[in-house]
UniProtKB/TrEMBL annotation:
Thioesterase domain boundaries: 128-196
EC main group: hydrolase
Catalytic activity from the UniProt record: decanoyl-CoA + H2O = decanoate + CoA + H(+); (9Z)-octadecenoyl-CoA + H2O = (9Z)-octadecenoate + CoA + H(+); hexadecanoyl-CoA + H2O = hexadecanoate + CoA + H(+); dodecanoyl-CoA + H2O = dodecanoate + CoA + H(+)
Biased composition (Basic and acidic residues): 17-28
Lineage: Bacteria, Bacillati, Actinomycetota, Actinomycetes, Mycobacteriales
Keywords recorded for this protein, A-Z: Apoptosis, Cell membrane, Cell projection, Cytoplasm, Fatty acid metabolism, Hydrolase, Lipid metabolism, Membrane, Transit peptide
Membrane topology: Peripheral membrane protein
Renumbered residue ranges of the record's region Disordered: 1-28
Family from the record: Belongs to the THEM4/THEM5 thioesterase family.
Protein name (record): Acyl-coenzyme A thioesterase THEM4
Length: 217
């Protein structure tokens, strides 16, 4: 899907849910700003992975705490309404401009399917090299939600998301991810997705997405 199409479908999501449609012109600084924000989210994700892996000494912990508190103080007065924010609203970027779920790099996307790769860094570790069991449905909701809301479909919300954990999902490896639309019935759409480590099926999910009625939040 092109960036223009993704943006058009997101604009529809927001206009139908009562928010002013999001436009790329909401982002200040054009292309230069676009690249900079993507770099910021990558740097933040990298920081979280390194933090999760490290055993810092007290001096470094104190110094990091001070730096982070300084950034929070600087950002505090810059808070804007949800519709004017950048974080998580950059559907033109693989990361969507957020770090809550890992970045999904899509190699193929059509109206009813998407496939690509996902990499869970150390930040998403549950234990013994396996991704946390809550991070996996988070990633599934991300890819299924994006697919459900793509291609000019009406805005939808997840009604249920069922995940089966078939084998551990390893941290620190590039994994295959696939999502596809299974059925449509009125306002209801069922979508499925899988994560593979090579030939091994790690996890699979089924989600029901329900198209929102006008004015529904
Ligand atoms: C700018 C950037 C924006 C980014 C956006 C894009 C990227 C996003 C990426 C991230 C994306 C993240 C996305 C997210 O995470 S969305 C956040 C998580 N989801 C929610 O918060 C949803 C909360 N629930 C609701 O709002 C309502 O319950 C909904 C809207 C879902 C339905 O309530 P509504 O009052 O409207 O409809 P209805 O109750 O008459 O139901 C309608 C039909 O559906 C059937 N049904 C309903 N529930 C279930 C169920 N659990 N199992 C089986 N069936 C169920 C029901 O039987 C009926 O069927 P039928 O009798 O007609 O046959």
């Amino acid at each position: 899907m092109t960036a223009e199409r993704a943006e058009a479908s997101v604009a529809k999501v927001l206009s139908d849910t009562g928010e002013r449609p999001w436009r790329s012109s909401d982002l200040h600084g054009g292309d230069e700003y676009s690249a900079t924000y993507e770099d910021l989210t990558h740097a933040l994700g990298d920081f979280l992975d390194r933090l999760a892996e490290a055993r810092p000494d007290t001096e470094l912990i104190e110094s990091m705490t001070e730096s982070l508190a300084g950034w929070a103080r600087e950002l505090g007065p810059l808070a804007v309404r949800e519709r004017d924010r950048v974080f998580g609203r950059r559907t033109d970027l693989a990361s969507r401009g957020q770090t809550m779920s890992p970045t999904i790099e899509l190699a193929e996307i059509s109206d009813d399917s998407a496939s690509g790769t996902v990499y869970f860094g150390s930040y998403f570790l549950g234990g013994n090299g396996a991704v946390h069991g809550g991070a996996i449905p988070l990633m599934f909701d991300e890819i299924l939600g994006r697919l459900a809301n793509a291609s000019g479909r009406p805005p939808q919300r997840t009604a249920y998301l069922h995940t089966d954990y078939r084998s551990i999902t390893p941290v620190g490896r590039t994994l295959g991810v696939r999502a596809w639309l299974c059925s449509e019935d009125g306002r209801k759409r069922i979508l499925r997705a899988t994560i593979h480590d090579g030939e091994t099926l790690c996890a699979e999910a089924e989600g029901l997405f329900v198209a929102l009625k006008p004015g529904q939040p």
